[in-house]
Please model this.
Amino acid sequence: MLTIKDSTDKYTSMKILCISDFHGKFPNRLYSFGKEEKPDLVLVAGDLSESDTFRDLQFKNWDRLKADTTIEDVIGKRKYKQLLKSSAESVINIFKRLEKLNVPVIVIIGNADHISESLAPYHLEKSGIDHLIQEFENILLVDRTFIEIDNIAIVTHGGYRGVKSRKSHKEGDSLKYAAHKKQYTKELESLFKNMKDRAHTIFLTHDVPFSTDMDLVNLETSPMNGKHVGDDVYRASIEKYRPAINICGHMHENQGKEMLKDTIVANCGYGHNGECCIVKIKDKKTTVKFYKL
Model:
């Protein structure tokens, strides 16, 4: 367990700036807003890396990719490696701006982010988000961790199982894209057992819970338009452990909130376009306000 303590107790009442899905861009208006608001903490729900190029290729070749064909197969190894390096290193400019906010920043990875291990086959380990983040003092990259900041607990669970992972799983697939349902369930059980007070607990994820307003695709260019694509394990965990709030992202078009039992599910929105939210926790009350800057 990672514990961060502050003897001034200033976090008894906490103001948190929540952002997700930068996708390689930190808009000036969003950065200025972060400076003006002076939050106590910043939470980033993944997808810092530029991924529009990969996304366009995925949608363009959707039918081919269904048949065990990869984007690398489609465009060739050399071009794929170039795109991979550019995408991975796009987080540097995001980190520079987050660092200048001069407050603690907690980051989890999303489906667009690249860790050193996944880049190793291309000899790009030094371009991994976990390597690049090391030079920034105010930013902490976490994954599947229970964090305490005074009386506020944060259960972090980064990564992304993928839509297809609920039906099948192939051994050897990257955890980033496909994980065993049992593994996710076991990890979350282990993390939530540390929870002392649900009213003071934040659940930080990249993906959104399944079968909600948050996970309904509303994008005509997507092959999944009109379908629910969220994570069923996250939904089950929220209903079982009832944290005060689940902060998530991933679904760019679905900024907003809804209730799952006693839990606020808050999608930060598309940070790339200047969307974010402010979460305030005071005593036993949690509120969230959304911004389109």
